[in-house]
Amino acid sequence: MTLEEFNRCVDEYADSLFRFALKSLRDEDKARDAVQECYARLWSNHKQVNGEKVKSYLFTSAYHLIIDSSRKEKREPLLDPAKAPERAHCSQYSDLKEVLNEAIQRLPEIQRTVILLRDYEGYSYQEIGEMCSLSEAQVKIYIYRGRVFLKNYIGHMEVLI
Amino acid sequence: MFFLDYMEGKLDEITQREVESFLAENPDLKEEFDNLDSFILPQDSFVFENKDSLRRECYDDVNVFEDTCVALIEGDLTDQDEAKFESFLSLHTELKTEVSLFRQTRLVPDPLLSMPHRDSLYRRRISAITWYKVAAAAAVLTTIFAVTHLYEHHRDVSTENASIVASLKEQVRGEIKHPASVNSVNSNVRQGAPIKASVLFPKTSAGAAAISYGRLSGSTESVVIPSGGNVIVPKKSIITRSIQPINASQLTGFDLNDKTLADMEVDVLDDSGRTSPSIGKFLTDQLTPVEDMAMKVVHPSKIARLGLSVISVATGRIIDYQTNKEGEISSVSFDAKLVAFNIPVGKEK
Predict the structure, then answer these.
(1) Mean pLDDT value across residues A101-114
(2) Rounded Cα gap, residues B198 and B300, in angstroms
(3) Would B233 be classed as within a structural domain?
(4) What's the average model confidence in pLDDT over B16-23?
């Protein structure tokens, strides 16, 4: 991977990587640091990284950083959608996007990651599995569970609104 | 009993033939049998029209339905499966809301959300060549500075010399019939501090040639003549010490801000008891001819050598110089890791 290719990767993937990190970490500074770290790792290994696998390398790095950060903070997502309205007042949601963002934050880390990779970046089950060290079937299951959770959360909030 | 089974066709072929044979032999029973046949009800044409609603499909299982919904929005369904599912939904419109909710779970990235300070991620090519260029430029600048400094230094000395010489000439004029020529002044001394000057006195009518190496400061107001002995000149005092003829050719240590030779009103007595009206006159009288007028003054080349040494120490680089027989710098060489050169200095003879 050449210097020019590296800088092109910055242009192409920095924003999407930042969005992915921000959605996962919920902290702009941490997300920015994660992106910096990802590109620093890429640069330190740029001679070994295949140009076609750069995006996957970046998101895999980001995923591991997110996991490490989550483990440090020991955050536990809220799994029961029925409890959500008790903690979040309905009036603070002006549209579906906000409700969905709230729901995303309540997903378990792995489910949120696979859904973000799927929706934001359009990765296949296999690619997501390679990034997250999961089998294709596991990815499908996590996506399925995540979607069902999101659907139930949205449906629940819509009823309340 | 046989008749009912015969009518319903439940008898086997042999028994059925026996029944038919029996009826043929007994016409009264045949008549009764025919009457019995009229009691068979005709088949109705009623049908249950909403039969499909009673059927169950795989999507009726909640898990299968949700799985299919997810597969639908993920694009995992084949065209056939999708058509089948759409068909199912058309029959169960109440489930379309569920499918709509599933569709809403698809996340859409915010295009306005971008990585702040993305420029910091770029890598720029900073090769060793650039570093060498910078180092070389620094070396050249240092050299230019050194050469310029030497040149300016030399020029300052000359300028200052001219100024001081003019002043000294003015000061000693009148006191010494044949005014001295001042050759050089050390420019290291600044205004307000004692100035070391070299004053040459040419031959005078009295046969004097020069005054010895000496020093006169504003505080002690003394003249030191090491080569010929010390002459203490307190202000308004009389020197009683014998003064030997002086063979040197310099006089240094004037403090221009204080007293000068001409200003010194000192009565000096020599061995013969003669009184000199002023130190200038006294010194003039003491002048003796010298054959060698070569001066041991602070030559600019000494200053240049000192400057080169200072630069060499300050920069940590090897700056060397070659001198000729007169002690003047003939060439300057600079040696570093990146660059080395030798610059000839002065005019070739």
Answers:
(1) 90
(2) 13
(3) yes
(4) 86
* C-alpha to C-alpha distances, B163 to B3, B167, B183, B304, nearest whole angstrom: 162, 6, 12, 21
Same domain, A50 and A87: no
Q: Which domain holds residue B24?
A: 2-37
Cβ of B104 within 8 Å of Cβ of A3? The answer is no
User: A17 CB near a chain B CB, below 8 Å?
Assistant: yes
Q: Are residues A101 and A143 in the same domain?
A: yes
Those residues whose C-beta lies under 8 Å from the C-beta of residue B94, and which sit 6 or more positions away, are none
Residues B211, B173: one domain? yes
Minimal CA separation from B136 to chain A, in Å: 27
pLDDT tens column, A32-85: 899 999 998 998 888 888 878 888 899 999 999 988 888 887 655 545 554 444
Does some domain include residue B107? no
Residue with tokens 């306005």: B112
**Domain shared by A99 and A45, yes or no:** no
Of B106, B116, B121, the CB nearest to A10: B121
Query: Would you say B222 and B244 are in contact if contact means Cβ atoms under 8 Å apart?
Result: no
Contact by Cβ (8 Å): B278, B172: no
Query: Nearest Cα to A20, choosing from A126, A96, A132?
Result: A132
The answer to whether position B13 is within a domain reads yes
Amino acid type, B315 = T
Pick the last residue of a domain from A20, A40, A75: A75
Query: Are B87 and B208 part of one and the same domain?
Result: no
Give residue B221's pLDDT.
32
- Count how many domains chain A has: 2
State the SS3 of A57-98.
HHHHHHHHHHHHHHHHHCCCCCCCHHHHHHHCCHHHCCCHHH
Do B24 and B62 sit in the same domain of this protein? no
Q: Give tens-digit pLDDT for B213-228.
A: 333 333 333 333 333 3
Q: Which amino acid is at B259?
A: K
Residue among B202, B147, B134 nearest B346 (CA) = B147
CATH of the domain at A2: 1.10.1740
Does A151 touch chain B if contact means CB atoms closer than 8 Å? yes
Q: Is B141 found in the same domain as B78? A: no
Q: How far apart are CA A113 and CA A83, in angstroms?
A: 22
Closest residue to B110, CB basis, from A7, A19, A28: A19
What residues make up the domain containing A69?
A: 1-75
Q: Do B178 and B79 fall into the same domain?
A: no
Q: How far apart are CA B65 and CA B94, in angstroms?
A: 13
Do residues A62 and A91 both lie within one domain?
no
**Which DSSP category does B58 fall into?**
G
- Rounded Cα gap, residues A70 and A88, in angstroms: 22
**Contacts with A155 from chain B: Cβ below 8 Å:** 98, 101
Residue type, A151: K
